[in-house]
Amino acid sequence: MKKILVTGSLGQIGSELVTHMRKIYGDSNVIATDIKVPENNEVVNGGPFEALDVLDANKMAEVAKKHNVDTIIHLAALLSAVAEAKPVLAWQINMGGLFNALEVARELNCKFFTPSSIGAFGCDTPKDNTPQDTIQRPGTMYGVTKVSGELLCDYYFKKFGVDTRGVRFPGLISYVAPPGGGTTDYAVDIYYKALQEGKYTSFIGEGTYMDMMYMPDALNAIVTLLEADPSKLKHRNAFNITAMSFEPSQIAEEIKKHIPEFKMSYDVDPIRQAIADSWPNSIDCTAAREEWGFNAKYDLPSMSKDMLDKLKIKLQIK
Ligand code: AKB
Question: Model pTM greater than 0.85?
Answer without folding.
Answer: yes
